[in-house]
């Protein structure tokens, strides 16, 4: 924002939604907040775009708590959302529930109605009965100054069903050791459920 002298707005959408679903435009009453607090909203996925009905629901289709902690799937409907996939009845039935498009994106929602995507449903790792979001693990790994890129995936595990495996690319000229990564994970274990599964 400083470099380009402009505002920052995050958007989210899909091909099936023509494309916008959300904008992170600040609500009028939030404009009195400090710039730092405003940016906490601006950096989220956003709130529903005009004409879009959006909800974040659990596995039973019930809305999750607006506490930025309970994760659910984003469901949307509206005039800009496709009614289905051309000549693909089975795919349409799998993607829709009572007129709502199930996006496959997992998110949390706050009391102001801003959603924040945490992962893709297909990317979620279920290990020992615990849901681990790959982006949560990756965000912890990105805390290390030597990490350039990180990717967390689920791999088969005989006892846990799946376990987390991370791939890391160090920054140019840096060398990462397993001990450094172990220390990072141990340091952040208390507040990140994902790390407990590594």
What does this structure look like?
It is a single chain. This protein has 198 residues and is α+β, with helices and mostly antiparallel strands. It folds into 2 domains: 11-121, Roll (Luciferase, domain 3), CATH 2.30.38.10; 124-196, GMP Synthetase, Chain A, domain 3. Helices cover 19% and strands 34% of the residues. It has 5 helices and 12 strands. It has helices spanning 35-42, 89-95, 134-141, 178-188, 193-196; strands at 11-13, 20-23, 47-48, 52-57, 72-78, 96-97, 100-109, 115-120, 125-127, 130-132, 147-157, 161-170. Strands 4, 5, 6, 7 and 8 form a 5-stranded antiparallel sheet that branches. It has a 3-stranded antiparallel sheet with strand order 1-2-3, with no helix packed on it. A hairpin with a 2-residue loop joins strand 9 and strand 10. 27% of the residues are buried.
């Amino acid at each position: 924002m400083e470099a380009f002298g402009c505002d920052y707005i995050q958007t989210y959408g899909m091909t099936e939604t023509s494309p916008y679903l959300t904008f992170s435009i600040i609500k009028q009453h939030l404009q009195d907040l400090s710039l730092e607090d405003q940016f906490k909203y601006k950096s989220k996925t956003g709130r529903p775009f005009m004409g879009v009905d959006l909800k974040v629901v659990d596995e039973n289709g019930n809305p999750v708590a607006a506490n930025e902690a309970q994760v659910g799937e984003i469901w949307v409907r509206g005039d800009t959302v496709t009614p289905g996939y051309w000549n693909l009845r089975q795919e349409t039935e799998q993607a829709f529930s009572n007129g709502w498009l199930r996006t496959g994106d997992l998110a949390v929602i706050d009391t102001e109605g801003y959603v924040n995507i945490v992962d893709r449903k297909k990317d979620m790792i279920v290990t020992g009965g615990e849901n681990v979001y790959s982006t949560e693990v990756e965000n912890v790994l990105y805390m290390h100054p030597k990490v350039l890129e990180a990717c967390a995936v689920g791999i088969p595990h005989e006892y846990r069903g799946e376990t987390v495996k991370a791939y890391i690319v160090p920054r140019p000229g840096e060398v990462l050791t397993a001990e450094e990564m172990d220390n990072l994970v141990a340091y952040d274990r208390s507040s990140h459920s994902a790390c407990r599964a590594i």
